[in-house]
Amino acid sequence: MQVRNIKSSDNMIEIAKVYIDSFKNTYEGFLSEDKLNLITQDNWFENIHDYRDFFVLIDQDSIIGMASILDDEIERIYLRYDYLDQGYGNLLLNAMVIELTERGYDEICLWDLKENQRATSFYQKNDFVETDSTRNFHFDKDNLKEVKFVLNLKHD
């Protein structure tokens, strides 16, 4: 099992499939099918702004997860559905925390749908604290809100 940066030689179609399938699985029930289908392989590639900020979780040459960061924020963390609830999400999340710690951040944040109780539970089990900060879900115009989670790494 390995978490590493995406490389230009990686199978981007496989990475995009992990992202798209996981996105649709995560947000099914929150977003309409029309909005879920807006995420495609073509527009996913447009989101890669810097390979140093995109990561994959690999198991025996198979990509089973992906994550991305921007500044002090974990932007995305997605796993293939058949790998959920087996500790791989923790592995990927912890790798992002280590990466951001090594980049010098004392506090890490991420945003997720306020209504996504599965994710809320996952982040809280990993010491992220839900804050009062909210924002509109950037992918939807139906008044869905995201809540900010913070992990404080300062050791007093």
What does this protein structure show overall?
By secondary structure, the protein is of the alpha+beta class. The protein contains five helices and seven strands; from the N terminus they run βαααβββαβαββ. The mean pLDDT is 88.
In short:
The protein has 156 residues and is an alpha+beta fold. 31% of the residues lie in helices and 31% in strands.
Distance between the termini: 33 Å
**Numbering strands along the chain, what is their spatial order in the largest sheet?**
1-2-3-4-5-7-6
Q: Let me know the average pLDDT.
A: 88
The coarse silhouette is globular
Low-confidence region ranges: none
List the helices and strands and how they pair.
Blueprint: E1 2-5, H1 12-27, H2 33-36, H3 41-45, E2 54-59, E3 62-70, E4 73-79, H4 88-102, E5 107-113, H5 117-125, E6 129-136, E7 145-152
Write out key terms for the chains shown.
156 residues, 7-stranded mixed sheet, single chain, alpha+beta, globular
